[in-house]
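Folds abound. Consider this:
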Amino acid sequence: MPEYLSSINSPRDLRRLGYPELDALAEEIRHFIVQSVAANGGHLGSNLGAVELTIALHRVFHSPDDLILFDTGHQAYVHKILTGRRDGFATLRQPGGLSGYPSRAESEHDWIENSHASTGPSYAFGFATAFDQQHIVDRRVVTIIGDGAMTGGLAYEALNNLGHSGRRATIVFNDNGRSYAPTVSRISEGVAKLRLHPSYLRQRAKVSRMVRDVPVVGDHLVWGLEGALSGLREMIEPTEFFETLGVRYSGPFDGHDIAALERALRNAADYDGPVVVHVLTQKGRGYPPAEDDEEKCLHDAPRFNPEIGPQHVPGGPPSYTGAFTEALIKEAEAHPEIVAITAAMPGSTGLLGFADRFADRFIDVGIAEQHAVASAAGMAMGGLLPVVAIYSTFLTRALDQAIYDVALHDQKVIFAIDRAGITGPDGASHHGMFDLVWLSKIPNMTVFVPSSYQELQQMLHDAVEHAEGPVAIRYPRTAAISVEEFEVGSGFEARLVRSDEQARVCVIGVGKLLAEAITAADRLAESGVGVTVWDPRVVQPPDPAMIADAARHEVVVTIEDGLGEGGVGSIMTALVSAAAADSGADRPPWTLNLGLPRAFVTHGDPESLLGEAGLDADGIVDAVRARLR
């Protein structure tokens, strides 16, 4: 293990090192992170950019007595390394291993399990209020908000409350100019223009070298120079924004200069009120493949060879995201009213191809999901056809807007919901397990769930051509199967996959779990149990023909990769029972809804997690046999 890193087992160990040693430690940490992420995958670029900042934070603040809160928890790898979890990185994001985000179960140094964005200042306000009410004066609160999270409106709501209350908290604005992609924000435009201006950079570097070389007083003169430069920046930049909110502003500071960061953070910690410390960092710093990645600086990466960095392999398994990209571009060519909206994730949601082809019809709102959905309603009212491409877990943040801005007005907005169901290594905060429950309860909302690559494309076409109100198409992160033309449905009808007039059992397989339903039917048929299989395609409202057919069976099983309690399966089986009663059946079918448990599911391999929840062919077979017994 490297010379300095092996000796760091707690934040206290940092305080015995001098600045040259800390600089060496920073480089060792970068190498360690690259090797760890290369082995297991994970968030790379944001952590490489936050090394010196995290070291300085742990030298100034005394965690866990002082609270260090990471807004966008994916930038907390260095924090984990410095707080005694270095050896656990061999299990990073692996089943039973170290979480890719702060985890209260892992360490007393992790106060919040925060993997969504823009919430840090709210937590800071909450803790500061709690300490104030209890007359606790010897504990400090600092939150690090970065990777574009300052584009989220929630951050400003909290800053407004902090400024109004005057309560003591430090907000570190880790400004790397990016979220997943380059940040959409005017907040630091002035800073960016100044720090990137060639003349300014050349003159600053020249003057810094000259004054530093002055014997004895050189370092003191440099500090004075920094003060003068800060004055210059304040004349050019809109720092009044924070001051108007009642929050003191300081910066910007070089986020890779540990000594300068410590001075800035100590001053902020001593201030008796809320203060923003603006820090400029480089995402992906120190690792050339990350620095050269223009899209997202290797924000996240799969397993890779650290010598060459992640490599794009043409082809690869087909994905639902890829199917959406192709279909959206095709539809947009035929429909000039289509616009595509992302909340700071154009690459991950498959919109880069659309942005290249239709730049003037592509809208990135930053990390502002509520705004994305509400503005989509306005666009629809104005005659456009907005397609909001978003992760399931992040759409949850805009539930209010989906209901009251889109559905209440019955506006035709298409939600392309990626990463639905169990997503895998990112864990509880990223599994898309709640969307089917609440989407299926929204009036006017049509909900499609594709079971294949081709089905997703057909559904997007049908949504564009035939839907009259809001539409959701939700699909998983895992690979998409490809099917023949006769295995693709159309319109708003379910598709009968396997028919048996003598069947005692009907299985309705939602989305990707249709494949498990078919496998289970084959196994049950081998033991003499006839099974009918349906692909519902549209889970809200479900096809009446499917409901009527299911009602003739002895046992009806639904399976979905969403919350089982209150999910779409419970809607369908309730309709089946009602249909059986209306038909005069002696008794309604036995019904069973298989879905995810009402619990927060940890990180792990998606298929293994689904199997543990009984959402595979084995689970269906066992459930059916138990019912038949």
Remarks:
- Residues 64 and 109 are 5 Å apart (CA to CA).
